[in-house]
Amino acid sequence: MTTLVTGATGFIGSAVARTLAARGHDLRLLTRSTSDRRNLAGLDAEVVTGDLTDPDSLVRAAAGCRYVFHLAADYRIWVPDPDAMLRANVDGAVAMVRAAAQAGAERIIHCSSVAALGQIGDGTLADEATPIKEADFVGIYKRSKYLAEKAVLDLARRESLPVVVVNPAAPVGPRDLKPTPTGKMILDAAAGRVPAYIDTGLNIVHVDDVAEGHVLALEKGRVGERYILGGENMLLKDILGLVADVVHRRPPFIRLPEAVVWPAAFVMEHLAKFTGIPPLMTRDHLKMARKKMFYSSAKATAELGYQPRPARLAVEDAVAWFRANGMLPA
Fold first, then answer.
1. What phi and psi, each to the nearest 5 degrees, are found at residue 259?
2. How far apart are CA 318 and CA 310, in angstroms?
3. Nearest CA to 141 among 112, 176, 119, 120?
4. Dihedrals phi, psi of 53, to nearest 5 degrees
5. Nearest-angstrom CA–CA distance, 61 and 326
6. At CB < 8 A and 24+ separation, what contacts does 304-308 make?
7. Hey, which of 6, 165, 257, 292 has its CA 20 to 30 A from 35?
């Protein structure tokens, strides 16, 4: 039987596809006609064309598939058209789950995000049971992932669908073509373009560990449950210091208070509206940074056997890949 992966040209999706291939799955990969397919190089898979905004294409892609992994999503912190992101991330997720159910899929793995979970923010670890507050969902991306996960789980409960949700933290590693917002932070820091930092924190995880967690969720996850796929909780200062150590640079030592950065973010956002070029920083970035995004993967470890590697290995692999692909000077 065939396993469908959506978003396989992307960062996490390509890692999941490779992990599944190594497990012997016969792969069908859903891509858009405009997708950059470099991340599919070397994969033995059937590639089909479709789009999250075209439900009929999702039905065709899922036909005959035993398992479905839905990873396709619009992952940007700033977008000129928020409604387009909602259509892709929320409506597209529901349409994909419906298509998988129509195909009779035995298991549907929905890739959500820690952005869809509740936060504590003071350095205490949040988990799958942390209460959710609407105020936590700053920015259209976080809101879209929350709404998508909620819609998918509500649908799964109503119709008794075999859905398992995974919530990756901030992935780092090879094949980050765009790069993602987290990958860009690592790339800019490695290139010496981050002279200062703000007081916040992230959970850094190797993208290949996230991929392994997806497959473990297929093999061992409980239907209707969600699992955080995280790695190491680190202050931004320490992440930038780690990158600097890997590339043998001096780490940034200037801590910027939010009040200093806010006017620059405001100007960047307004310029972006006229130029269409994504801003380096937005007010939503700063609002999110007020809370340390620290999470526990204890549930995934206990139930799935999930074992992420240290963050340093993720950064080393990311830097090596950026250099090998001409995105970072040697």
1. -60, -30
2. 13
3. 112
4. -90, 5
5. 34
6. 304/213, 304/216, 304/217, 304/219, 304/220, 304/221, 304/227, 305/216, 305/220, 306/209, 306/212, 306/213, 306/216, 306/227, 306/229, 307/209, 308/205, 308/206, 308/209, 308/213, 308/229, 308/230, 308/231, 308/232
7. 165
Q: How many helices (H) and strands (E) does the chain have?
A: 12, 12
| Complete domains list, the chain, with CATH | 2-172+204-232+295-310 (3.40.50.720)
- Contact between 29 and 72 under an 8 Å Cβ cutoff? The reply is no
pTM over 0.70: yes
Residue 20 has pLDDT above 80, yes or no: yes
Tell me the DSSP string of 183-244.
HHHHHHHHTT---EE-S-EEEEEEHHHHHHHHHHHHHHPPTT-EEEE--EEEEHHHHHHHHH
Task: Specify whether the CB–CB gap between 40 and 64 falls below 8 A.
Answer: no
The yes-or-no verdict on residue 287 having pLDDT over 80 is no
CA distance 230 to 173: 14
Find the distance separating the first CA and the last CA of the chain, reported in whole Å. Answer: 44
Least confident segment among 102-106, 169-173, 198-202: 198-202
Q: Which pLDDT band, with edges at 50, 70 and 90, does 90 fall under?
A: very high
Q: Describe the chain by its helix, strand, coil percentages, rounded to 5.
A: 45, 20, 35
Structure-token pair, residue 11: 């960062």
276: CB partners within 8 A, 6+ apart: 80
Two tokens at 177?
A: 């073509």
